[in-house]
């Protein structure tokens, strides 16, 4: 009988497979995607958020545990399991040497990403290079991989894993790691979760999926139906405001619009609806998809003037451009008078200070609702630019409850041989919100933990300690 079955093909799954193999287990990976599309959402990632107490190669200064924890606590609004969150944080300090041993390379932050030069380690070649490195290492170690292998259901007995079913094929294993992602690619489940809004619209119809089309949530649904303890809100997700022209799937990082904090954002009624300068963009970019999802027609428009050009990572596609505000409104199909008044009110409310996009500066608005807390400068220098925004869903936060061993819980009791890692359990740490790179921190930490624990369960010996 097979020792460890890993279901999934992204970062968390490969970390689990490599750890289990290093512990001496025979490992089979089942990836639902074809080989050319392997890796899930991990192929679109760029970096890993890392705790460190002093400068480390590509990381500058220090980013201690408590600061990481406070950043996470802030963006989640307290909707997080502190014990599990701190496990991910602490593992982020020691995982990179292990990653390097499996072929992953790092590079310094690039222009336009300096906000995270202290907190995040960037992968050389991005997520695709990371995934390819892990697959090469897995192959060299003897991990078997099957592609186009969609698992329909798990065979469980009171929380104990027996086998996985692929159609009529039954695969037995002594232990299993589920790392098969969330349900963000399942449009019907998104419709079910979000329902209609007050205007009778179905917001999920206008969602674009930034990552893989293969995250249908099949095993997540199966586990919940079989009594796995549930964690998270099905409407909470990593949701970014992306270019409205992005493809339905796999647009990735290049579809993101990063100039929000340098201007204003208006809805279809040409009115602002949230504080664009609330905090640093890496701590707020992943709430803007949800904010846009709540607007009429699930669309917004990021507006900047010439002063902002060169201060953010430019989008792939050019936005609308005009020399006057009313001309820009016409290009966008917005009410000209309302749009011009919105900008005028914003400009009048701006209070001059020392503008510095690298810090939480003192440029703010007064007497304006919603306010703009930082980086508020009048939009008064043509040409003016606009980018249409849609909600871009990266991954969902509904998942299964796990413990420090990554064991899936059933009725409050941990399974003895079924473990979970990655998006399928990220809701234990991410109840809402996001901060750049933390998804990879969670997936790497709990992927490695799950793999070590699965090997221990299969081989009936203590789990190997995780070392850097």
Which key features would you list for this structure?
oxidoreductase; 2 domains; FAD-oxidoreductase_2; globular; Flavocytochrome C3, Chain A, domain 1; 6-stranded mixed β-sheet; FAD/NAD(P)-binding domain; FAD-dependent tricarballylate dehydrogenase TcuA; alpha+beta; 468 residues
Describe it for me?
InterPro entries: CobZ, FAD-dep_OxRdtase_2_FAD-bd, FAD-oxidoreductase_2, FAD/NAD-bd_sf, Succ_DH/fumarate_Rdtase_cat_sf. Pfam families: FAD_binding_2. With 468 residues, this protein is an alpha+beta fold. 27% of the residues lie in helices and 21% in strands. The protein contains 12 helices and 21 strands. The strands form 5 sheets. Strands 1, 2, 6, 7, 8, 9, 20 and 21 form an 8-stranded mixed β-sheet that branches. The radius of gyration is 23 Å and the shape is globular.
């Amino acid at each position: 009988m097979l020792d460890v079955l890993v279901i999934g093909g992204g970062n968390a799954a490969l970390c689990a497979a490599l750890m289990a193999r290093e512990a001496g287990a025979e490992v089979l990976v089942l990836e639902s995607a074809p080989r050319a599309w392997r890796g899930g959402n991990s192929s679109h990632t760029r970096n890993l958020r890392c705790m460190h107490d002093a400068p480390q190669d590509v990381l500058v200064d220090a980013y201690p545990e408590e600061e990481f924890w406070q950043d996470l606590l802030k963006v989640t609004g307290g909707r997080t399991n502190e014990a599990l969150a701190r496990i991910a944080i602490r593992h982020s300090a020691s995982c990179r040497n292990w990653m390097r041993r499996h072929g992953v390379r790092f590079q310094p932050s690039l222009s336009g990403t300096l906000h995270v030069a202290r907190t995040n380690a960037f992968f050389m070649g991005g997520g695709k290079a990371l995934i390819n490195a892990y697959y090469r290492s897995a192959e060299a170690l003897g991990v078997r991989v099957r592609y186009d292998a969609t698992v329909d259901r798990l065979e469980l007995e009171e929380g104990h894993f027996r086998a996985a079913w692929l159609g009529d094929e039954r695969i037995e294993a002594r232990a299993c790691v589920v790392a098969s992602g969330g349900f963000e690619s399942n449009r019907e489940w998104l419709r079910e979760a979000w329902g209609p809004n007050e205007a009778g619209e179905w917001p999920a119809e206008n969602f674009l999926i930034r990552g893989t089309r293969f995250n249908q949530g099949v095993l997540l649904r199966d586990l919940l139906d079989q009594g796995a303890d549930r964690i998270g809100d099905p409407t909470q997700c990593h949701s970014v405001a992306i270019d409205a022209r992005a493809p339905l799937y796999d647009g990735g990082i290049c579809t993101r619009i990063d100039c929000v904090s340098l201007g204003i954002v208006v809805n279809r009624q040409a009115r602002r609806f949230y504080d664009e300068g609330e905090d640093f963009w890496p701590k707020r970019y992943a709430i803007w998809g949800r904010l846009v999802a709540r607007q009429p027609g699930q669309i917004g428009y990021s507006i900047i003037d010439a002063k902002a050009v060169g201060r953010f990572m430019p989008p792939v596609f050019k936005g609308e451009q005009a020399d006057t505000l009313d001309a820009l409104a016409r290009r966008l199909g917005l009410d000209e008078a309302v749009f011009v008044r919105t900008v005028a009110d914003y400009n009048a409310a701006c209070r001059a200070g020392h503008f510095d996009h690298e810090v939480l500066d003192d440029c703010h608005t007064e007497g304006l609702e919603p306010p703009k807390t930082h980086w508020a400068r009048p939009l008064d220098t043509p040409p003016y630019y606009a980018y249409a925004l849609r909600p871009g869903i990266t991954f969902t936060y509904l998942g299964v409850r796990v413990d420090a061993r990554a064991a899936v819980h059933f009725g409050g009791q941990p399974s003895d041989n079924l473990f979970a890692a990655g998006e399928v359990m990220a809701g234990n740490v991410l109840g809402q919100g996001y901060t750049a790179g933390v998804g990879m921190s969670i997936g790497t930490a709990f992927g490695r933990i799950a793999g070590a624990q699965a090997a221990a369960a299969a081989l009936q010996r203590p789990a190997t300690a995780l070392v850097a």
